[in-house]
Design brief:
120 residues; two-stranded parallel sheet; single chain; alpha/beta; 4-stranded parallel β-sheet; 1 helix
Length: 120
């Protein structure tokens, strides 16, 4: 279905707890997407996938998946991932995401050193 929108730049889907799918399906918009926002006041628990599926979206400046069931690990981000990123909000299902509870305080520096280059 998304292939029918080949020049879509911004995708904002909010406050729909019935929303379902895998963020991997956004790959058909890899060359055009600048902003992705899924969630809002209502938790979109049926939106799944690994946030790293969007890591090579060269134009992506804003990614907000904070109210989804998306998973992954912040520490998987490499220097060639999320090149244009300005704003990043990930759910607690992502290691290092918003609300993630570290099991050991010694894990925090790895997450910070991964995020710092993206956010500066």
């Amino acid at each position: 279905m998304l292939a029918g929108f080949p020049i879509l730049k911004e995708l904002k889907l909010s406050n729909n707890r019935h929303l379902t799918g895998n963020i991997n399906s956004l790959r058909v918009l890899k060359e055009t997407l600048v902003m992705v926002g899924i969630g809002g006041i209502e938790y979109c628990e049926n939106v799944q996938g690994n946030f790293m599926d969007l890591a090579d979206f060269a134009r992506l400046k804003e990614l907000d998946l904070s109210w989804t069931a998306v998973t992954g690990d912040i520490r998987d981000i490499c220097e060639r991932d999320f090149l244009a990123m300005e704003e990043l909000a990930l759910p607690n299902g992502v290691y290092g995401g918003i609300g993630f509870a570290f099991q050991r305080i010694s894990d925090a520096p790895d997450v910070i050193s991964t995020l710092y280059p993206i956010m500066k």
